[in-house]
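Hey everyone, long-time lurker, first post.

I ran two proteins through the pipeline my lab uses and got sequence/structure pairs for each. Pasting them in order. The first:
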Amino acid sequence: MRTVVFDLDGTLADTSADLIAAANACFRGLGHGDVLDPVQDALIAFQGGRAMLTAGLARLGQQDPELVAAQYPVLLAAYAEGIDTHTRLYPGAAAAVEALRAAGFATAICTNKPEALAEMLVQRLGIRGLFGSLIGADTLPTRKPDPAPYVAAVEQAGGVVRRSMLIGDTETDRKTAAAVGVPCVLVSFGPEGSDVARLAPEALLHRFADLPGLAAQMLS
């Protein structure tokens, strides 16, 4: 079965504001104000919790990997409390996935967000039933760009890897697709905008309404 695998953060949904809020909760707990900006630092947010903590501490003149490690669980707890406060699906995302499924495609999520948080978020967004599988950062011993999580996502959704493609928004997604040997489509409405073209994906996706036709063409 042809399968389309999606990244989550920055691809299906804009989660940046809630991620930044969780990091800022850590900084406030350490006696600082809100160090990161939800708009200007959106790209940092999509690099993960540790990246946000590291960037914020650097602005405070601190380089402390041990403090980052200690605050990471605090960040995850804060994020879980407000996981869908500001997060929204990108326009047309759900409709595009529904159209793919109606056309006979299997659909899956492969994300570097911890599995429990990813499951919580897609449930809150009302889209869990649109995906045959969800593989998170800690589902397997390795995470993207290692190919194993992607392969697991395809196979658990009932698909065949050689007839699959990845929809993402970052260099990690590009490297994952290359490691597996499948086409990669990067969204131009994510954190990097049109700058993702520098990663030379097989295609760019400017709006979700174009995805069903693009997938049919690429996996014909």
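...and the second, right after it:
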Amino acid sequence: MAEAQSDKSQGRWRTFHEKFVVEERFMSVSARRNLYRTAVGLMILGVVLFVVILTGVLQHGGISAADEPVRSWLVTLRGEPATTIMIILAIVFGPIGLPIIVLIVTVAWGLAAKHAWRPMLLAGAMLTGVILAQVIGRIVERHRPPVDLMLFGADTTFSFPSGHVLGACDFLLVTTYLVFSRRKNPRSAIIAFIVAGIGIFFAAVSRLYLGYHWMTDALGAFSISLVVLGGVIALDTWRTARIPGERITGTLSTADAGTD
């Protein structure tokens, strides 16, 4: 009886320990190099876009010149059915709805998967996005569109970048990468990223339509998310991607442990 209880305890401890052991995924040298190149490329693109957008915002010119025309055009499209849909999107990707979704996804994924590395990466990416949005917002101190045009209550916090859009971008892009980076069929990944892009588009449009953000607020959020995604890809590749014959202590081969 004592031996059975001891084996049971050891089994539970082994299962708990394996949650925090990162599985290895083996690939060719060129495949790993391409992942690093993609990560660096996304981060560079994100930084360049952000600088261009921020420069326009601060100088009230450049790309920000399109903010008012876009806002005015969206006001002309307002109607009851569209407003209801946009409010629902705002709630889903808002400061209450999205954290609940992220919590459910990360906890459920962490419990169901053999290893918790990817759910932890998702949680870390979401937290990074929140911190960046708060810090940048307080530095730039951009005002929102007129309060009388807001359709879901007044909001007088800073406008740049859009926290709703940044959260939507981080969640959809990072989740898509973490799920489909382990699939061998590139077509499924392409389709998934297209779907993620559609979701991001509607999340951004909802914020502009409801009168809470300028177009450049949404674009600025998207550019930041590209940097976050690139960082996730780089970290994930560094921690899990191995070439045949390479082994790092503290990881667990997918050949030994299976896939999540």
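Reply from user beta_strand_b:
Welcome! Quick read of the second one: The two ends are 33 Å apart (CA to CA). The chain has a mean pLDDT of 85.
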